[in-house]
Task: structure prediction
Amino acid sequence: MTKKTKLIIGAASACAVVALLAVALWPSAEQADDCSGSRCTTVAAGEPIFLGSLLSDADTQGIDALTATELAIDYLDGRFDGIGGRLLDHPISLISENDDCSPEGGRLGAERLLEEAKLLGVIGTTCSSSSLDAADTLMSARKTPIISPSNSAPSLTDAERHQRYYFRTALNDLLQGEVVAEFAYNKIARRRAAVLFSPTAYSSQLGEAFGDRFKLRGGVVASSSNIEAGGGLSAAVRAAEREQADVIFVPVQMSSKPSCADTVEAIRASSVLRSARIIVSEACQDRTFLTAVGKSADGVYASGPDAGDTADDLFYQSEYLPAFKRSAGAAPAGVFDTNAFDAANLIFGAIRQAAERKPGGGLVINREALRSALLDIKGYSGLSGTLDCSTTGDCAQGGRIAIYEAPNWPVSKPRAEPVFSQSKSIAELLTGP
Amino acid sequence: MNFSVSSLPGLVILVICLLGAFGFAWLVAVLLRRYLPESSRSDATYIAGKYMTAFGSLFAFLTGFLINSEYATLKSAQSYVGQEVAAATQLASASATLPPPDADRIQDQMVVYLTSLPGAEWSSLSNKKPEDSPSGQYLSDLQQQVYTLSERKYPSTAALSSMAGGIEEMTQARRQRLVIGSSSLPPPLLLLCLVAGAALIVNALVTVVKAGTKYSLMATGLILLVALDTGAILAITDPFQGPFRAKSAPIEKLVQEIQDGRYKPWVNGR
Result:
């Protein structure tokens, strides 16, 4: 063998050794990358899985949502027996914070929840303003999925500003705005609308969505007034009087000040607006509204998710609703409790899909995989409707919006028939006129 | 009878049998040379030659019978594992029609049960102590979950009936597995086989004793055969442990499918 041949064989052997080493080390390098830093959360055997709730304790929608979240945890063992079930043989530890229905409340609550480094998901917030540029941003920065049962402001899932870990099971208000506009313009033949809104993301964006769709049909948005601005509620009502509005849309929450009930009472007190029809949104579709306004509520329309499908669901009727009543002492006061039940179950399902089971019972959960598992959800038959989570965070891609006329609201009469109901999808609205 | 040697890896069993057979042969060869007088060796070789066919046939018959019977047991065990997996698949498919929280819970419980089979359950069956396995309790929990659902109003009759059928078949297949696990190779039969093997080795060595040490090597093939046959019997005798055991791959595949969301219609692209 010549010296040159020996050299070639030596070099080839060295290359082969290097290649073998690279192949051997490559998978472990990739694995390290998958679980580096905070991307993975380890839950040791027997350790609880931490979930958070960031819901308003001053709003019945928030209180209902918390009850529903607790029921979802309770039902992990297949029974609504008041004893929390286990997920992948780990107990669930629910940390609750108040979103205060404000950006500051959302931010503070999110920061407090994130003090638990192993927090794997959050049900919240109640109000859109608590999420928008507040909880949604903070949670996404820490790769913690947050699923809201009741946020409906369109901008939260707008592709331009959506935060990666933000999801919601509530219907996007683009749908509600469209159906309310259709009802006002075509069903009750109104042409001059007034919008009385509060300066929150939810209220202003729903008012805007309604106005855009009303104008698209040929209607006029004669006035659009912030009820918390300088002149307050009375100035807003005067503007509607001045413009001779024949339909007034009030997308205001019961927890706002002035509240939805205060606003409707002020409109009812106006003799000029006697013939105007009042439509409130789902945030006002609440038993406390009917109690507060009393007889004057009769004839007030309320928009919101069509409760018919849920009321007909046998699981809802025979298991969930009795359990809710046992737990809360009364039936849900608002319309978002089932969205919260679904949101909690979506997180449980995503944890199941993303968790890597370790011998002895420990879990390793990759947060990117957790998000991917939520995005994999297509055609989930939830209590609130069918859910398909999109990359922009909307899990309710469409649904049936109904208009109810007081006193026949589903929150007081579970079998109430809507006066108008229509199915719409987000895709339909984004691609249509 | 609990043959702990059967739970060893195949190579170890083979080495033990080879060492045993060749050690025994060496001992016999030494004893023959020492105690069988030179003058008698021609006669001994002649007589032993006459007996070779009889001893060979007896050994072949006994080992053939044992290997065949143990292989049939292994096939049965594998068949019951297959039945159990098929029934579990039926249960998983039927649970997919339930509300998602129920389907998730049933499938979680199935994963717990199925995962325990190749580990804890098979090891306890091998030790003839099925009561040590937690699988029985896991299956009972799963049954309880299914029966609780059958008392409720919302699941469809078709789903409930399919789930009940699935869990029933799983229970039956497990029971059959336990029966197979509790049966064992009859010790006298194994002893008879070992005696026949030993007699064959002794006889083979007697046939070559006159020819000297060099020619004793001619018996090597036969000793090797006795070692391999004995090794095969020991290796195949436990269907839940050792080198020849019921394959757990179908169970592991189903567990993976459940964990990947194959039986959850709302989990897309898994």
